[in-house]
Every structure is written in structure tokens, then in C-alpha cells.
User: Fold this.
Amino acid sequence: MKKCYLLHAILLMPLASFAQPANDDCANAQVLSISNSIITVPFDINTAVISNQLICNSTSNYADVWYKFTMPYNGNVNIDSGNGINNFALYDACGGNEILCINLRGLLPNLTTNSVYLLRLFRTASNASDPANQSFTIQGFQEVTNDDCSTAQTITVSTNSTTVNFEIGGAHINNEVGCEGSTPKTHADVWYDFTMPINGDIKISSGFSINNFALYDACNGLQIGCSITNGLFQNLTSGSTYKLRMYRLSSNAYYPLFKSFNISVDSALGISDKSQNDIKIYPNPAIETINISSAFPYEKIEMYDILGHQIKTVYNTNEINVSKLSEGVYILKIYTPKGFVSKQMIKK
Assistant:
């Protein structure tokens, strides 16, 4: 009899139910506030309605939740969800145009001030109940003033190293060719100009490979050189003004570290033609090692490839191992108490 009563009680108990997320459809999208600070947004997608939908050119059974935000300025928005099962699609309105799709993390580029955007976070049905990474971060980046060559920021260069801080997260995203090859890629860039105070070279160091540099003689002019991370742009003329483009792949534009570079002038003044001839490198071309012969002391030697990328620096030696270098032309800058001497070396 007790078993019958127990069964009857169980049958009369209300079944547990799980409510749908309030922002399960675009019309009820949760409002987000975009700012320059990183905002963490928790979400619950476990009980979202599963439906067969076309999202980002793929039709499948998806669960989704919706958000909307108004851009406070022209610029970009970065999203990071920390897990590959989270996907995002950006729209200009409910039922409107799909602007962009990203997986895991990415930059929503070139958004306009006061425009309202709809953000859809979605997972495949098989991942909807996965408890991992049920939050994402969102951060806005305001458009930068030196986003174009015509509005380049002027910097002063000298033989003393100058540190230039930059913000690139809000730069306009363009599909352009960079130092890394001939195929156009999406880049963010900022621009600088400077006037050479003396004849010599410009040396740049940024400390991380996501920073790239290209030097031009004018806006839309001739590209003088291109370099990744660190670079040397040679034989620049006193009194001439040059345009420096600093750029990153769009996927790295938001990255919060290494947002500065050092720039300085290396002067060839004080090195006479005779002194140039008093420093010799041999054999040239070289296969294994090169030797340096000098009539006067030198402090260090820097080696660059033909694109201006710094390969190595050595001190207090008259022999350099080049066996592991690729075949090609390299530049040696040999520093003396009076200045530096540039020598060309061919690796076979």
C-alpha cells in the first residue's frame, strides 16, 4: 500500500521545466553598452530553441541568443569567447543583412557612430548544452586620427632613440598587400611622417612580430622598404620627409601588448671614403664564415637582409658564421667610434 501511495505522489509532482533565455530571438535582444573597457557578457544557451537555420552560409540545427548595441563612435569592436564552439554573426537589423561572421574571436570592423547592430551568438545543437565557455568579452576601439597617410602623425627623429606609442585597435580595416607576401590581406594601419635631420639610416625596433613597417617617399608614392618587427631603412636624405606606415593583420589589431616602437637615426657622418676602404669583409661571396678586417676598432656589427630585417648582432669579433643564412644579399653595419660603415655581403 505504501508503494502505491508513493507512486501516486510522484505522478502528482509537477515536472521540472527550464525557461528559454529571454534573448532567444532577435526581437528580444539583450542590450549591450560598448566602451573602451573590456566587458564580460555571461550567457545561457542550454535551453535556447533548436531550429534548422542558414547562418554564415551554413545550414544546420542551431541554438542562438541575441544582443544589440549602438556604436558610440566610428571604429571597431573586438569579441573573444575563448572556445571554438561559440560563433558570432553581425546584422544591421532583425531580418536584415548579415554583415560578418566570426568563430571564437575576432574584430567587427569599420562600424559607424550611432548605428545599431544585432549580434547573434550561436552554437550547433550538439554543443548547445556544453557548459564550457558560457561567456564572451566585448570591447570597443575608437577610430584613430592618424588612420590615413594624409593625416599622418609627425614625429621627430634624431640619433637618440625615440619611443612612439600607438593605438591601432580602432584603425580602419583594409584589404592590402603587406611585407609578408604578395597576397592582399586584411590589415589595420596607422601613419607617421618625419624629416631626416642628416643623411643616414632609420632604425626601428618594436619587439614583437605582429608589428610591421613600410616606408614611403610620399603618400601614394614609392615604397622604399618594408620590415617585420625590426627594420633598417638605408640611405635617406637630409631634409627629405618620409611616410612611415605601421600595420598589423586585422586579427592582431586589438592585441593590447607591444603598442610602441623605437625609432632613431644612424648617421654615416664622420666616416671618410678612406675609412670606408679601411674596413674589408672577405670572402665575399661567402658560404660558411665571413671575416672582418679593419684598420681601426669597431664596437659591434649588425646584419640585415635586403628587406631591412635585422638578422643578428655580434660584438668584439672579426668572424661571423653565416652558414645557416639563406642565399642572397645582406647588409653589414659596422659601428666605429666615428660612425658606421655599411658593407654588402653575398651568401652563396
